[in-house]
Amino acid sequence: MTDDTSRNGFTLLEVLVAVTILGVAVVSLAGLHARNIRLMNRSQDMNVAAMLASRLTASTRARGAPDLGTTQGDFDEGLALRTRSDREFTTTSEDRFVWQITVEPTLEPTIREVTVSVRLRGEEDSLVDLTYLSGDTGRR
After folding, report:
1. Is the CATH number of domain 10-135 3.40.50.450?
2. Integer distance in angstroms from the first to the last C-alpha of the chain?
3. Rounded to 10 degrees, what is the CA torsion of 103, 106, 110, 111?
4. pLDDT recorded at residue 36
5. Taking a C-beta distance cutoff of 8 angstroms, is the pair 49, 130 a contact?
6. What are the tens digits of pLDDT across the range 69-111?
């Protein structure tokens, strides 16, 4: 007589359970990978926006105390902010970004608060906001 408990191999049910577990794991890893790619793209956009905001801030500061109010535009409007090395380094196009400069008064009449914001075109929330104080050179 043969003993039924000495069979070798797997049952069909065991194979189906193993394949189901493997399938769930692969789908989960694919979802994590897609999320990782989205986060990397967002991080790259934030880095480019920070560089553009920094350059725009330097350009604004070099021109002196700006007038009160809000101005906005994009980086194709004649702002010479890109250098040759930036073109080689930056893989995203700057025309995807727009800027806004808001100048507000402070309690001290000779000082103004300047906020430089950079966001992706078509989005409401800014990626980067840089705020600095600017001294008024006699204008009121």
Report:
1. no
2. 108
3. -60
4. 93
5. no
6. 999 888 875 454 444 444 444 444 667 899 999 999 999 988 9
C-alpha torsion sign, points 93, 79, 85, 99: negative
pLDDT tens for each residue of 23-79? 999 999 999 999 999 999 999 999 999 999 999 999 888 888 788 999 988 887 545
Q: Which residues pair with 102 in a beta bridge?
A: 70, 115
Backbone torsion region of residue 9, taken as left when φ is above 0, otherwise alpha when ψ lies between -120 and 50, otherwise beta = left
Q: Which residues contact 4 (CB under 8 A, 6 or more apart)?
A: none
Integer Cα distance of 72 and 91 in angstroms: 24
Q: Where are the domains of the chain?
A: 10-135
Residue (of 68, 134, 132, 140) closest to 109 by Cα position = 140
User: SS3 for 118?
Assistant: strand
65-93 burial, b at 16+ Cβ within 10 Å, e below that, comes to: bbeeeeeeeebeeeeebeeeeeeeeeeee
Token output for 47: 């880095």
